[in-house]
Model the fold of this input.
Amino acid sequence: QETKIDTATKVPEATKPAEAKSEWYQKINLRGYAQVRYNRLLETNQDLQCEQCDKSWGKNGGFFLRRLRLVFSGQISNRLYFYIQPDFASSPDGSNNNFGQIRDAYFDLGLDTENEFRLRFGQSKVPYGFENMQSSQNRLPLDRNDGLNSAISNERDLGVFFYWAPKKIRERFAYLVSSGLKGSGDYGVFALGAYNGQTANKNEANNQPHIVSRFSYPIQIGKQIIEPGIQAYHGKYVVSSISTGVQAKPQNQYRDQRAAASFVLYPQPFGLQAEYNIGTGPEYNVATNTIEQTSLRGGYALASYALKFNKQLFFPFVRYHFYDGGKKFERDARTYKVKELEIGTEWQPFKNFELVTMYTISKRRFEDAARPFNDQQGNLLRIQFQFNY
Amino acid sequence: QETKIDTATKVPEATKPAEAKSEWYQKINLRGYAQVRYNRLLETNQDLQCEQCDKSWGKNGGFFLRRLRLVFSGQISNRLYFYIQPDFASSPDGSNNNFGQIRDAYFDLGLDTENEFRLRFGQSKVPYGFENMQSSQNRLPLDRNDGLNSAISNERDLGVFFYWAPKKIRERFAYLVSSGLKGSGDYGVFALGAYNGQTANKNEANNQPHIVSRFSYPIQIGKQIIEPGIQAYHGKYVVSSISTGVQAKPQNQYRDQRAAASFVLYPQPFGLQAEYNIGTGPEYNVATNTIEQTSLRGGYALASYALKFNKQLFFPFVRYHFYDGGKKFERDARTYKVKELEIGTEWQPFKNFELVTMYTISKRRFEDAARPFNDQQGNLLRIQFQFNY
Amino acid sequence: QETKIDTATKVPEATKPAEAKSEWYQKINLRGYAQVRYNRLLETNQDLQCEQCDKSWGKNGGFFLRRLRLVFSGQISNRLYFYIQPDFASSPDGSNNNFGQIRDAYFDLGLDTENEFRLRFGQSKVPYGFENMQSSQNRLPLDRNDGLNSAISNERDLGVFFYWAPKKIRERFAYLVSSGLKGSGDYGVFALGAYNGQTANKNEANNQPHIVSRFSYPIQIGKQIIEPGIQAYHGKYVVSSISTGVQAKPQNQYRDQRAAASFVLYPQPFGLQAEYNIGTGPEYNVATNTIEQTSLRGGYALASYALKFNKQLFFPFVRYHFYDGGKKFERDARTYKVKELEIGTEWQPFKNFELVTMYTISKRRFEDAARPFNDQQGNLLRIQFQFNY
Done:
């Protein structure tokens, strides 16, 4: 699926002499994808919502443009690769929608001739969690799991990251995306980074960067490929949206630390994916009306199956995920307790179009000072039309 | 005028095998247009303004970037066409200007091999009114008529639309744009759609979609082409900007229904265009300080003439339009009574540049809780420099 | 350095028949550049900051995306050139970052066949000051000097500008950029313009445009090229951000007038650049808590040296600049007294990557109603990674 290749393609590119390409349109590539959603069918509880997942869940939701991406990228010299991805489904204020805002804007400087050692500058995904790294273009469930995704809003931050992977593994990372196996792209076998820590498109709010590290290796065993991984980060986070009357720590600053383990069996044809993380961070306490430093934990398991029928692809899947902790980037570091089961199928009639239908059985407690007792449960059918261009 | 072709060109494209185009720049096309305006010459009343038309009318207006468009589009497979058009003259708050915001972001899925039957997903023009469908790049008067344009701010909304047109008529729709006859593009002979109803780039605000339908047919009579059309929509609209103290219906929700008739005689060389619509919607009542459910009506007639002189094109035109009703998407569903006569010319010295000068004789009453008695009249010269790229 | 050519390349382009280019990607060009910064090393005073220069200076600053540009441009016909440059490191509100906002959106209409006489419509740089005209992609110090840059926030405004330069000089302007000599691009030998005057991306706020004129001529003397220039503008400026209790003139409106002299010796290999300007404008007076009409003055001198070593370029430089006056576009027309010495080097290991390290010795007094006594001094090391694509 050539439309889905991203950073992974750097390996073959870099081996060609970049100077031979003289025209801008040979050096710069443009592609993108979009997701149009509707979540209101078979809905049993319109107060069941998820701010981070999809703002059109529940009451007053309707047709929704979840993502609208244009990706400008290119290996512009033997040593420099760039990747700029604005999202045109972004809002500065939650009510004036569909402005263009950066997701990725990063620049990979190769430290050796094969670009096995790279420094990445700019805003990019923080290497924490396989599902976080994996593009939404490739993910089967409509939204990322709360457990690991609560670590970093929009999965990204601004900083400097070091990545290392041997050439052979870089080619394997590339293959795992280009073959349709729904890989994460190339975030290195080893990663080490320093970044602001207030998450994507936000100002740094203290004087210390966050530090992250990750180790992940795709192992070929016969025809099958598995990828175990571990990762951790630490830093200090400043809660920025606090309701009047809520107590918080000095400077609204909290320890922000997590560690996670990941396991992936790529779907040939049966796929399995599981991640789990523990840590500490800010979390609203309803009883005391205080944002406290608390522990958190969460994860998921996803099983999938790749079916090819008449040149069309089907990916039936089931995922269970849970999370118990705060969401630091939401109002009052909103407290969460989530248990969710999703059963669905992705259907790709041709490579430019994908339809996901997914039945969600959910139990979500999410509470802040404005909604102090808010334990919601219910079921709904969610539909996504994805277009790859 | 090849620079102005948009959805209309899909017909010839779709008949070629898309797979033969292997490079991204052969599959994706980029074009655009921009409008720079100045409205302050020969102005007799600086309190005569029009928020929806052009924010630089009247007091403190100056040079103004009315539209700045980039269009990314392409028939990326036999069955899928995409069209993404950000406008870089948009503002999230009315004072920080020239941010990039989506106008169109739609995806046409062909249901048959000729794409005569299509489903359109995403944000696109709601098929209501010929002048609303017609691109501003092609329209003669600087702004759309208040009568029909008051139906949908920015003419667009997010939803799913079904379009049908036979191949021969799709080619005729394409010709009406590419030939410079200022057609509407291909919004089908028959259209049926469901959309959020709060207008472009706004959140849905209730649990029911709007429904729209349209029938429009370009008929060739000798050398002349006429296009009669009818259309209607209905739904419930939630007024979102209400001044303190103003009374409104429960949940600020109102019936929003309209029906319109359209007639076009394309300018070969004499052109005639007329539309009229009636309906009901929210409207501010000054006497009671209440937003009421009221009836509305309005329309226009436009006469034009196409002159070719020394490879240059001239389109002298005159338009009269009027509107009596509310504008649901403005503060307090502002009440309007508009009568306006415009006399002007579009001059195209070469295909990339157009100059419109237009003398406007206007009478506009527009009142909300902040400006309860506001009946303005006056004349002014309006100038637009349009660049097609 | 072909990646850095902008308006300057129009001369050779325009002499080719534009009609021969039939594909969009031959007519429209895309390039860009990005700047990632870190300012916190060797910092002696975290209260030393500069809002206009770089919002990540000082306390709570971190990694920062200073500029992220995409440039769409092209000579789309013999008489029309367009240049659209959004910046994706812009914020509508200072806290939701990295939205795409226009810097340049201009359209050059040639009045003669050689385009020696041009009218420029839209938003573009106001021809006032060499360093203001010079692209940040080419400038050696990280930020522009306060003295001349305080004239126009983001260097740009919306209006109509007339430019004249003979063909030979247009080619020289082009050479001064393409050769890596860090020229300003082609803003004419003579410039005359009318523009709104409230600076880039802001609404006009009164009924009079600003007027600007400039004369600048690059003179070849043997191998060396010098460029002396003079420029001036006048208008009325409306201060828009005023703290409660601060006194201002009626309608918050002030005379806004400046005149400047510029001198450039291009670095072959030794370069010298100096500018100075005087004028009048609004300025906050701490003693009286009033925004007053006061005089202002400021300028800079920059010495540089171009070194080529093993195909790599080095530009060691030193700049001293000072400013005494208000910044009309900041809160309360904040009063400034700036003295700053910068010593640094730009290193270009290959054309797509530049690293600037710069040690800054600074004394900045900047005061408004919220910070009435605020005289800061200190030193710091500033680092910029620039990527040209």
In short: The first helix of chain A runs from residue 10 to 15. The first strand of chain A starts at residue 29 and ends at 41. The mean pLDDT of chain A is 94.
